[in-house]
TrEMBL record:
Keywords noted in UniProt: Cytokine, Cytoplasm, Secreted
Subcellular location: Cytoplasm; Secreted
Taxonomic classification: Eukaryota, Metazoa, Chordata, Craniata, Vertebrata
Protein name: Interleukin-18
GO molecular function, one term: cytokine activity
PANTHER family reported for this sequence: INTERLEUKIN-1 FAMILY MEMBER, INTERLEUKIN-18
Species the sequence originates in: Asarcornis scutulata
Gene3D superfamilies reported for this sequence: 2.80.10.50
Gene: Il18
Main localization, broad class: cytoplasm
Pfam families: IL1
């Protein structure tokens, strides 16, 4: 059954975590990231909808899901991989992967028709990232007075954040440019 599989996945993540602890002492070059820990999270928007990924449709959207669907977790049980960084002021560097059926997909940003979009590609998140990477986002608190909600800035382009936009009654995951760092835009608010 599906439940058993996600238990195995957790064990795998825990093992990776164990291996990564030894990276703690390694010298880090500027803008190098090494994976420090992996957290299992559902990503929710301001409407408490859960982010669901459907790689076969090339789509990720925030949806209302039932408790039953959440138990299966397919396409919505994210691993948030936290990396050590040499420049902590930018926020904590994280990468996201999600389990769909028996495959793992990582979130990345790619340019398409001159526009940056969020994509999910089959594969694992690397343990070490030597330089810049299109899978790294900086996790920042959404507002200075709330520690529960976050926004995720794309590491390769300042001011670009994970967000959602409504399209055909779907709330699709997009990258959104915010003109100012301190702008409060509810579409970029994500709780874990």
């Amino acid at each position: 059954g599906r439940v058993k599989m996600s238990c195995e996945l957790m064990v795998v993540c825990a093992v990776q975590l164990g291996e990564n602890l030894c990276l703690y002492f390694a010298e880090l070059e500027c803008d190098a990231f090494s994976k420090e820990k992996t957290l299992h999270r559902f990503l929710r928007n301001v409407n408490s909808q859960v982010l669901v990924v459907q790689p076969d449709l090339n789509m990720a959207a925030f949806e209302d899901v039932t408790d039953q669907e959440m138990k299966s977790g397919s396409g919505m049980n994210f691993c948030m991989h936290c990396y050590k960084t040499t420049t902590p002021s930018a926020g904590m560097p994280v990468a996201f992967s999600v389990q769909v059926e028996d495959k793992s997909y990582y979130m990345c940003c790619e340019e398409e028709h001159g526009k940056m979009i969020v994509r999910f590609r089959e594969g694992e998140v690397p343990k070490d990232i030597p330089g810049e990477s299109n899978i790294i986002f900086f996790k920042k608190t959404f507002t200075s007075y709330s520690s529960k909600a976050f926004k995720f800035e794309y590491s390769l382009e300042r001011g670009m954040f994970l967000a959602f936009e409504e399209e055909d009654s779907l709330r699709k995951l997009i990258l959104k440019k915010l003109p100012r760092e301190d702008e409060v835009d509810e579409t970029t608010k994500i709780t874990l």
